[in-house]
Amino acid sequence: MPAHTPRADVLAAVPALVDESGEIDTAANRALLTGLVGRVDGVFVAGTTGEFPALHRAERRELVGLALEIFGPDRVVAHIGAAATRDAVTLARDAVALGASRLAAITPYYLAVDTDAVTRHFAAITAAAGDAVVYGYLFPDRTGVAADAEEFARTAAETGLAGAKLSGAAAGLLAEFVAALPPGTPLWTGHDSALAAAVRAGGRGVVSGLSSAFPAPLAALADAVARGDAEAERTAQAEADEVAATLAGSPEAIKYALARQGIGTEVMRMPAPLVSAERRDRIDRLVAAVGAPVA
Description:
Belongs to the DapA family. This protein is α/β, with parallel strands linked by helices. Helix content is 48%, strand content 12%. It has an eight-stranded parallel β-barrel, surrounded by five helices.
């Protein structure tokens, strides 16, 4: 009999949908979140896919509150990270006041920091979070803060961080983080199609931008891995790889894919490359092939 593996989490890293003038589109965000219920295990709100540096405090409150209303506190990870500790602390208090029980915070970014500065940053956040759990968010490619498993383990022990999301170069270090942290510490990869490898390395699952627009392939992959069904896993992995290659991990492509499914616009808050005609054609074909839209 094939070995069975605990089923991986698939957390959709949702974009912040805006209207043609760039204002938060509450109806579109509600439609997106409602359409994901029962198709993913939860949502990661106001993260990189959500263009968090371009969101105002009130907008982050609105998006987190909407997710909590639709998914409930156990299935929402509210990203409250900011470059300034003061701002991250304020956002943490906002999220907890809304009822969030799971928070994530990216490391500081822009100015160079050392391990002590990062530890002080996270200590202030966990203190403000009270009983809510806080996960670190490591994305060295974007923040300039190196991902080191041993250093993170010391920081987590000192500050009470409960786990981490590992993106970019950090995702390739997941096994090192598993070895450095206490057994059972939840770790998610931000590498969308690497769910199977992450789970087998001891990770909890994936925080996936692509699953915002195409949740079925990642859910099927998680199911196949959990069942130990090698044939189903190969099929689902190929589908997940195709989605990942088509969207190329970009929020602008994810927004375009959602717009083609009737959810929101493709307007970005942050400057981003235009989705090329070739990629639009690939996304259009994918929308037609994968089946029913998210909504």
